[in-house]
């Protein structure tokens, strides 16, 4: 079983939180492959924990549909589900179009400056080829739009779908061009600054459509990874 310990247990973390954080990172970065069997005992031994917090962490991940637990048959990393990604894209588009309406009316200099700072960090990460950091920065850009409109808990509510986006992105790193996403973000922000809601929405639709365009290729290349 593939498994990487990226960092040690933090002082404030419970054993359950540590197991959850480590397992989730392994799943999202595809160190643990879709469909791969999971050994609760091996994980507990590797992390220096009892099996109880590992079992609790696996149950948490099962609720996020990142783990599949079959009584009497074992546990495995969940297969990728293109339907979840498509539904996540639909929900994000529906909500974020409304967010952009608010942003074009309500985002002031402070919020715009925060988004500009994020874009500058995206440029540096893209230039340095730091793909994982760029993905996080991409998510932060969208989160800042929600925060700027006073809707940060709405962003948290749609966060269920984010891990499923991330796994597909990790699978298509060789197809990934961060400058495409960066350009989308720059155009969205420029439209918000111009208070041009129609243009901002058009660029957002283009941005989210990129998520789906490579899915057919991925399913053909990795048939065993998908439902």
Structure description:
By secondary structure, the protein is mainly alpha-helical. The protein folds into 2 domains: 15-77, Orthogonal Bundle (Arc Repressor Mutant, subunit A), CATH 1.10.10; 82-225, Up-down Bundle (Four Helix Bundle (Hemerythrin (Met), subunit A)). Helices cover 67% and strands 4% of the residues. The protein is built from 11 helices and 3 strands; from the N terminus they run αβααββαααααααα. It has helices at residues 15-28, 40-47, 51-63, 82-106, 109-127, 131-148, 152-157, 162-171, 178-193, 197-213, 215-221; strands at residues 37-38, 67-70, 74-77. Strands 1-3-2 form a 3-stranded antiparallel beta sheet. A hairpin with a 3-residue loop joins strand 2 and strand 3. The protein is globular, with a radius of gyration of 19 Å. The two termini are 21 Å apart. The model has no long low-confidence stretch (mean pLDDT 92).
SSE layout and pairing:
Blueprint: H1 15-28, E1 37-38, H2 40-47, H3 51-63, E2 67-70, E3 74-77, H4 82-106, H5 109-127, H6 131-148, H7 152-157, H8 162-171, H9 178-193, H10 197-213, H11 215-221
Antiparallel strand pairs: 1-3, 2-3
């Amino acid at each position: 079983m593939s498994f990487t310990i990226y960092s040690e247990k933090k002082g404030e973390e419970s054993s359950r939180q540590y197991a959850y954080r480590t397992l989730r990172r392994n799943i999202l970065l595809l160190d643990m492959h879709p469909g791969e069997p999971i050994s609760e005992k091996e994980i507990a031994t590797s992390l220096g924990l009892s099996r109880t917090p590992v079992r609790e962490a696996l149950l948490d991940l099962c609720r996020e549909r990142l783990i599949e637990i079959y009584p009497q048959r074992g546990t495995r990393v969940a297969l990728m589900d293109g339907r979840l990604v498509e539904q996540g894209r639909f929900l994000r588009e529906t909500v974020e179009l409304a967010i952009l309406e608010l942003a074009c009316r309500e985002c002031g200099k402070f919020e715009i400056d925060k988004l500009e700072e994020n874009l500058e960090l995206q440029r540096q990460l893209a230039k340095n080829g730091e793909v994982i950091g760029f993905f996080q920065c991409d998510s932060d850009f969208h989160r800042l739009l929600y925060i700027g409109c006073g809707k940060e808990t709405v962003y948290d509510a749609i966060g269920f779908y984010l891990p499923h986006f991330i796994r597909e992105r990790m699978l298509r790193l060789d197809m990934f061009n961060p400058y495409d996403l960066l350009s989308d973000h720059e155009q969205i922000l420029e439209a918000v600054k111009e208070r041009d809601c129609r243009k901002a929405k058009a660029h957002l639709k283009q941005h989210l459509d990129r998520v789906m365009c490579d899915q057919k290729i991925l399913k053909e290349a990795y048939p065993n990874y998908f439902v």
